[in-house]
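Q: Fold this one first, please.
A: Sequence and structure below.
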Amino acid sequence: MKFIKSPKFVYFAFIWHGFFLALTVSMLDLNTVFPALVTTLTSSKVIFAAFYSIMLGVPMIFNVVFGHYLRNKPYKKKYLLLGIYLRSSAFLGMAYFTYYFSTNNPTLTIISFFFFVSLFSISAGFAGLSYTDIIAKTLNREKRLKLYTLKQFFGGSAAFIGGLLIAQIFSMSISYPTNYAISLLIGFGGLIIASLGFILLPEPSSITTQNKESLLSFIKRIPSILRKDESFKSFIIVENLSGFSIMILPFYMVFAKETFNIDDSFIGKYLIVLTVGTIFSNVVWGVLSSKLNAKAIMRICIIIGGLNPLLAIYLGTTSPEYFAIIFFILGFMISGRRIGFEPYLLDIIPKTERVEYLGIRGSLNILKIILPLVGAVIINYFGFNVTFVLVTIMMGIAVYLLGKISDKQMVDLC
């Protein structure tokens, strides 16, 4: 029992979860596998983008509600586990409908996906707030950044294994839709195993105020919170603008399929390249995190996200093999976002109102809800190149505004 209460076990629990979560996410990777699956069911980029609006945006919509509900709960592990189990059931449901209906009734499969993707997203928002609060109250500032870096390393290794599995599944003689159903079932099992890391994890009690304020009153108070806390407000603006790089992540795969007319064998190849980029970047981020703060990592990550679309335009004139470089760089950007953004946010928000602030942050990330749809419309009318250039411009603005947040503000609020 002493080991279970030790800091080593805390690291073990979060790394265990991160490892199997990364393996699970590889089975429905949003940049390779999921785009390929959806394009087998429909050619509509609007429907395709709608899934991403739900995937990225639904947790944001409900985060204020979740934050308000959880703020007076001293223990949140049971809510984290509930969210994980609901997400795993979404994988199981998608596997069922993909296997039995995707060939003969793709419309029904699309409709079912809207339900399961919504369930996946809502439960992700619920689990995410609980997860972040547990990390924040369990580990101090320095240990948090170290944990995020370690999680990325082991998660990257798991994602690489997942990429190999996906490459094997889609290169074997397993026909459609069995190949996709198998990957989704592996995702279902991976999440169940991932949850085991938290079952024995001791959770410290949260600092609660037992505030009886109604949800409506809390929502009305959000503008005053933003006016009072300039650093938090600036973070919200920067994160929204940086969402433009996330907007086009799934469209890189669509761009490659339409430009090079590649088959599904490239799904696994690109996913492996992406995970290799993630693993390699973890070494780089690990070195940088020992010398730089989370804000500096955020800045580098946003710059990478702004330059990658321009590189995609150029590599689109070469070959699908060279285009794999885009996914290698995506590994850097995705890893950097996980290491930089959330630790930085935890540095600048007050401890006693942590869950409420996390909920506000989530719900005010409104651009994540509409950007995939906006991206699809821009691509339909103006093409990929115009969309890619627009993303680069917006990321440049995000870097500029991030620089306006002074280090003194950060110190004052820590």
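Q: Good. Now the second chain.
A: Here it is, same layout.
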Amino acid sequence: MQKSFWRWIRHGVLAGLTLITLVQSNAQADVKLPNVFGDHMVLQQGQKNKVWGLAEHGENVTVTIDGQSHQATAGADGKWQIMLEPLKVGGPYELKVVGKNTITFKDVLVGEVWICSGQSNMQWTVNGSNDADLERAAGKYPKLRMINFPNVGTQEPVWTHDRKWMVCTPETVGNFSAVGYFFGRQLQETLDVPIGLINNSWGGSACEAWVRRDLLAADAKYKPLLDSWAEREAQFKALKDKGDQLTEDEKKQLNGLGGQLSGNHRPANIYNGVLLSHLGYGIKGSIWYQGESNAGRAYQYRDLFPLMIKNWRDEWGQGDFPFYWVQLADFMGETPEPGDSAWAELREAQTMTMSRLPNTGEAVIIDIGEGKDIHPMNKLDVGRRLARWALAKDYGVKIPFHSPQYKSMEVQGNKIVLTFDHVDGWRPFDVAEPRGFAIAGADKKFVWGTAKILPDNKIEVSSPAVAEPVAVRYAWANNPIVNLYSKTGLPTTPFRTDDWPGVTANNTK
């Protein structure tokens, strides 16, 4: 076999299998806990928190913290777990786990814990963001902690990893997820409590990789997607079974297939390789920044994204915990005329999720992307807009948090009048006239419209080229030119009033 193939084996599939072997052999070894439990960790305040691990079959395990003591007995599979009673904000504490050996986790704080997940724009670090030098110099937040999980893709469950919690200092903050850091920092400065951030993001990842595979298989709409992966898996197995009889071309093909199969698009790969290692750890909620990799299948995302959220909630065992995401930013070249857009359709699918599931919310950033770069460097405003949702919805802070969102339309002669929710007044940026509106008649041909703000906060759109309008779109492009904000400064949510089939309507794999 080629060296590159064996390198993939070592760092891909066998990485997961090695961890599984560790779990199985642990039945004859010391008490162990997954790496999400460690020095400097933050536990979620005000709720019961699960602590779990492995020990010898029948071994008694005692877990103590802040006067609490809980016992469990390892089962035949070596697994044990206990539930801590709710803890109040504070620390530092020691969490001690005693079996045949003793493990002591030090500098444990109790506060608010959030998952930071998604693809590269969540993984993007403070070091790569605006004013990184100033952020590092000011990064003295000892009660703000983060753990970064590695990128492991496999169909086999991975029980633990080797990453550790980091305390926020000028030396460490550069390696924090930037969106996660700015979100967490805003929470801490507002609430004055410890903040723990679990960063499991993976650049380029597809939504289906975060979902349990049997859930996808149970829904016929994902059959083309799963069938396409089944073909690659079968091809890989057939080549692998040939062993030393492979031709040089077949070795290259095998190597290439191996890198697909251990990557971040294969259904359930990240669910097994990353998420399962800490799924069930006590959290307040999750923030999410992903969608770029699914933009070509935006219509499918309408169901896939809610399915993923429901999968996480069902298995976390904490009910409908808060789940807030970042809508895709503006990206790619600006277009001179209105048209179709896969990214606009993905944004639409994200917005739809708020009406599909409770306790969800969307931070709109259609104004702070960079046409030339899929990774806009302004992550500060992203984190703050997410923090508005959490502070208002989960912590009772009286602040605006929801971007203006289209509600309804009424045709009035040659004009369409739009009504919106979540408007505290309008503030067009740079010029007085709202920009980014397009209007069409029954022929479905959109032209730029003239928009006017009415005294009751409704918006009127018209064009001399459309005598009998039937539909309006706003910010409907990969990189739209728009300027309409609420009085608070939150950008208006991109929308369309029509439901005409889009460019991704038939894309399923």
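Q: Anything worth noting on the second one?
A: The longest strand covers residues 102-118.
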